[in-house]
Amino acid sequence: MTVRWIRAALAAALVGALGLTACGGAGEPAGPDGAGPVTVFAAASLTESFTTLGKEYEAVHPGSTVTFNFGGSSGLATQITQGAPADVFAAASPATMKTVTDAGDAAGEPAVLVRNQLVVAVPRGNPARVGGLADLARPGVKVALCAEQVPCGAAARTALDAAGVRLTPATLEQDVKGALAKLRLGEVDAALVYRTDVRAAPGLDAVEFPESARAVNDYPIVVLRAAGNPAGARAFVDFVRSDAGLAVLTAAGFQASPGA
Q1: pLDDT digits (tens, 9 = 90+) for 203-221
Q2: pTM, full prediction
Q3: Are 192 and 120 in contact (CB under 8 A)?
Q4: What is the DSSP string of 186-254?
Q5: How far is residue 95's CA from residue 126's CA, in Å, rounded to a whole number?
């Protein structure tokens, strides 16, 4: 056995253990015009929008099934470079996409799909009276951040540095959904996450802050070189980049990318 074969088998097992969020089944042979299974690895912050788009894609491409693996972009990139089976990768930052392109695992150049911006998520009514980043450093205020190796964490560090704020988070999570979960459980008073995630989460409010303009994340998307259904992968990427796809994404709070 080669090292890459072993890595691929281990990565495939990891994906199975984590569980895939599916809009349909997988394992059918690929077909023309976007038919067949398409496996998409996507940033956790795309969960709601891509789940909707997966269903819409299946509706307009008879015989297709879209299966998603949502998670922190850095972890997904590692899975791909270790051989995990996937057709499309949508990351929450160019840096995490670079991991995949540098490994030679992308089929062509990634395209920027949309952009996203940070907010401070707080419970409805903002009981801790958080008005900006400086308030996150007040004594007694517990804050959830994403770990710095994932895009939301890197963006949070950029914004905090721009504001000159130093704080010790109560928890560091591997993606925005983890940070939001801590907030919704009442374990923290605030979380630095994307605007889109607060919009999709009932019972939370978003506190905007000017430094977020210094930490806007581009979301690149690409067909993967080892795609089992390259035609379906290209069709899915084209679909989410179409006017109909972008309408779903912007309605969720994503920003259109210049030149998209």
Answers
A1: 999 999 999 999 899 999 9
A2: 0.84
A3: yes
A4: TS-SEEEEEHHHHHTSTTEEEE--GGGGG-PEEEEEEEBTT-S-HHHHHHHHHHHTSHHHHHHHHHTTP
A5: 33
